[in-house]
Amino acid sequence: MNNDRSRALYDRALSVLPGGVNSSVRATLPHPVFVDHGDGGHVIDADGNRYVDWVMGYGPLLYGHDVPEPVTAAIQSAAADGPMYGVPTEIEVEHAEFIARHVPSVEQVRFVNSGTEATVSAVRLARGHTGRDKIVVMQGGYHGAQESTLVEGEPGAQVPSTAGVPEEFAEHTLPVPFNDPDAAREVFDDHGDDIAAVLVEPILANSGIVMPVDGYHETLRELCDEHGSLLVFDEVITGFRVGGLGCAQGKLGVTPDLTTFGKIVGGGFPVGAIGGRADVMEGFTPAGDVFQAGTFSGHPVAMAAGKAYLEYAAEHDVYEHVNELGRRLREGITDICAEQAPTYTVVGTDSLFKTVFTREGPIGGDLETCCPAGCTQDPDCPRYDYCPKTGADVARAETDRWERVFRQEMTDQGILLTGNQFESQFVSYAHTEADVEETLEAYKHAL
Ligand code: PMP
Predict the structure, then answer these.
(1) φ, ψ for residue 290 (rounded to 5)?
(2) Closest CA to 237 of 211, 285, 204
(3) What is the Å distance from ligand 1's center to 429 Cα?
(4) Modified residue N6-(pyridoxal phosphate)lysine is at which positions (predicted)?
(5) Which residues does ligand 1 sit against, CB inside 6 Å?
(6) CA dihedral 290, 264, 408, 10 (to 10 degrees)
(7) What are the start and end residues of each CATH 3.40.640.10 domain in the chain?
(8) pLDDT band at residue 368, thresholds of 50, 70 and 90?
């Protein structure tokens, strides 16, 4: 495969963009594929090579690269009217109404411009609402590039996970292991009166994909209720993907106080949102006293795209299609792993999938095949003890082999996967059975 133009573009990029990219995860080895354009479930790179694309913008592109006609029409009409105003428009109200209608925990919405901005604002709102400073997060969870959540370690020994974040931020952030109810109880025993919120992805989707064990979120819900803390679900990835229009919270049957959204909610444009109970949401200025603002927030073109995106999903078999192809991918890769790499674990649910290069089982157990429907953390599953339960279980996998060997091998075969072992992969409405077959053939060869 000829990659001369991608390589040359990366050389140029390295001179003017730090690390050659505008988001760290894009700096894949040995150099990124520079995309020229998309086509359905595929992208065509600067050298004219075609790839089956499972990156899908890291989650927003529920329809792939061919946007349905009503969505295109809505985008073009909004853009033709003028890009933005800084004054309210009807489309913001309509988009918020749609979300509130479909996600029972959401009564009000504040739109922002990214998932990061949504979690920044949600944390500030939770702190303002409770008058407390501490937040509990999950080890291996991700909530964007923000000071309060770029923190790692154990409660009591937590530190910033990147240069540039003052220690004082880490002081207020308590990372606990996902799926460990005892660790959650302990952190509330020690700090309950100071905890403003638990901020958690309902499904860890930035650490492989880790499903919650039965009862885990219910425990978090109870602890928050007992201590007057807020439960904040970060559904930036899972929102309007897992569990369809009801989101992961609907699928799991847990009601958070606040939810952060991003990705799909903007239909491929930069949008984030915070949604939740009206009495909490009204803490935001100008209704309340927690300052929040943004020049581009509720951008009419992005609102038009997001609203048309979700409306199309409400009226078509979008989730049936993407979930079915997701199931086939997970099932097919499970069969291939059983033959060729029996320690590896296939994870995911709905339209999310990933292969975690687990070595000898993160927790032990027999090497039987995974649940083809995706990991459900069903205790009766023969691999229950073997399936990752925490971010640390995934971090112990052969992450280097995934990045340095496997992903590159797949790229060479025309299959574009996400940049590292930790990031989920995404099925779109534009993907076909032929894309799944081609991908499984490549897995066979690469594994
Ligand atoms: N929360 C979660 C769960 C995410 O996966 C991400 C991004 N992948 C973010 C927040 C941050 O979103 P953004 O990159 O749009 O700022």
Answers:
(1) -95, 110
(2) 204
(3) 22
(4) 263
(5) 58, 114-116, 119, 142-144, 201, 206, 234, 236-237, 262
(6) -70
(7) 69-315
(8) low
Which atom number of ligand 1 is nearest to the Cα of residue 272?
15
Strand stretches in 291-370, DSSP E: 345-347, 352-356
Q: How many residues comprise the chain?
A: 447
Sequence-ordered list of residues with C-beta below 8 angstroms from that of 90, at least 6 positions apart, any chain: none
Pick the catalytic residue from 10, 142, 309, 429: 142
Mean pLDDT of the chain: 95
The CATH number of the structural domain formed by 69-315 is 3.40.640.10
The answer to whether the beta carbons of residues 390 and 325 sit under 8 Å apart is no
Distance, CA of 141 to CA of 391 (rounded, Å): 7
To which residue do tokens 């073109």 refer? 301
Active site residue 429: no
For residues 365-371, average pLDDT: 51
Burial class from Cβ neighbours inside 10 Å (0-12, 13-18, 19+) for residue 48 reads exposed
Give span(s): CATH 3.90.1150.10, the chain. Answer: 4-66+318-446
pLDDT tens across 217-266, in order? 999 999 999 999 999 999 999 999 999 999 999 999 999 999 999 999 99
The one catalytic residue in 45, 53, 63, 234 is 234
> Closest Cα to residue 179, out of 393, 374, 389?
389
Q: CA gyration radius for the chain?
A: 21
Cα 91 to ligand 1 centre (Å)? 24
Distance (Å) from CA 339 to ligand 1 centroid: 35
Residue 417, token pair as written in the block: 């996967």
User: Sign of torsion, CA 315 317 322 324?
Assistant: positive
Give the pair of three-digit tokens for residue 277. 């109970």
In the CATH scheme, what is the code of domain 4-66+318-446? 3.90.1150.10
